[in-house]
Design brief:
Shape: elongated
Order of helices and strands: HHHEEHH
CATH class: Mainly Alpha
CATH topology: Arc Repressor Mutant, subunit A
CATH superfamily: Winged helix-like DNA-binding domain superfamily/Winged helix DNA-binding domain
Strand content: 5-15%
Number of strands: 2
Length: 106
């Protein structure tokens, strides 16, 4: 079973949603929109580094662009282990937020 921190979960879900357009700026914009709170680049890159280290994402260099002074963007893509980690965390949330707990909020 793969347990994720909340920030890892949110960033990993954003990468999944963004598919082939997941890089620093788009990931930050997506997690900000999903959470309704502004995220800093540091708030995104720390979990990205952890997810990469754990093998849940792969970092792929893009082409250098003149707009970036000849530097490349780095794109992120979920690995099979990353997809499995999202499935695990979803199953855990469903178990934790069981029907009995949901009823207590009504």
């Amino acid at each position: 079973m793969n347990l994720l921190s909340r920030s890892e979960e949110i960033v990993l879900a954003a990468i999944w949603k963004l598919a082939n357009d997941a890089y620093g700026v788009t990931i930050r914009d997506r997690v900000s929109a999903d959470t309704g709170m502004p995220w800093s680049f540091g708030g995104v890159y720390k979990p990205l580094k952890q997810l990469d280290h754990r093998g849940f994402v792969e970092k792929i260099p893009g082409r250098p662009s003149p707009e970036r002074g000849g530097r490349s963007k780095f794109y992120y893509r979920l690995t099979p282990d990353g997809r499995e980690a999202l499935r695990d965390i979803r199953r855990i949330h469903q178990a934790v937020w069981s029907e009995d707990l949901e009823k207590s909020f009504r």
